[in-house]
Amino acid sequence: MPDSDLIARLDALLPQTQCRQCGYAACRPYAEAMAAGDAGPNQCPPGGNDGARALSALLGAPYAPVDPHFGASKPPAVTVIDEARCIGCTLCIKACPVDAIVGASKFMHTVIAATCTGCELCLPPCPVDCIVMSDVQFSDETGRRAAALQAKQRYEARQRRLARNRAVAEKNAGLKAAAARKQSAVQRAVARARARIRQKQTPG
Question: How many domains does the chain have?
Answer without folding.
Answer: 2
